[in-house]
Design brief:
Layout (H helix, E strand, L loop, with lengths): L10 E4 L6 E2 L2 E2 L3 H10 L3 E6 L6 H10 L9 E3 H12 L4 E5 L2 H9 L3 E2 L6 E4 L7 H12 L3 E4 L5 E4 L2 E4 L1 H12 L4 E2 L5 H11 L6 E5 L2 H10 L3 E5 L6 H4 L8 E3 L3 H10 L1
Parallel strand pairs: 1-4, 1-13, 4-5, 6-7, 6-8, 8-9, 9-12, 13-14, 14-15
Antiparallel strand pairs: 2-3, 10-11
Length: about 260
Amino acid sequence: MNTIDFNAKKGFICDMDGVIYHGNVILPGVKKFIKWLNDEHKSYLFLTNNSGLTPKELNQKLARLGLDVPEEHFYTSALATAAFLKEQAPGCSVYAIGEAGLLNALYDAGLTMNDVNPDYVVVGEGKAYSLETLTRATNLVLAGAKLIGANSDVSGPIENGIAPACRALTAPIEMAAGTQAYFCGKPNPLMMRTGLRILGCHSAEAVMVGDRMDTDVISGMESGMSTVLVLSGVSTQETLRMFAYRPTMVLNGVGDIVRMAQGAK
């Protein structure tokens, strides 16, 4: 396993759930990590595939956990989806299934809502998901709308187990309409390249920190970044063996980054 000179890196892209918090519980070492990022003047971005929350809501969630992270340090799969659609078809119309994070991002990108003849059907996570919205989405896709998913996560952790996530929620529409969705979140390199652009970093100057091999590590690796897998979320040393690729480093949590950086000085 290689090592990373964390002091030499300019930018850090970090996943949130399983890296910064679990549900509503802050993980060990996180306060120290964010203090280190600020003290060392590192560029950093918290990148989440969860499309439900806006950057303001994420800022407030972390504030409730005792962390002060301004809104501009968050980038979500909802923002990535809106940016993709704005680039592909400026001013297009969409039928969206999702929460405030997705809807706000689409509105802010100048897109309009349309449940009659939209250009795109966009699916994110959300409590608005039902057989009725599923049926409408399927028939809009059959009538010519293109199908977009905010991210390709099949499931996500909740306090008493897992919940179906965006990929699982999009699958019935794909199957019923006989089509394939395009997913905008991690590990799509578009999201990573946008993250690097926001940070003002080249990939060689940045580190991707996450708890999942199939979204975080692979997206960082394929974008040319150093990668850190933390074992504070869903991954274990055993799950590492299932993958043909490796992170640059495996650490217990983000507190280890600070310990290594300060120990190297």
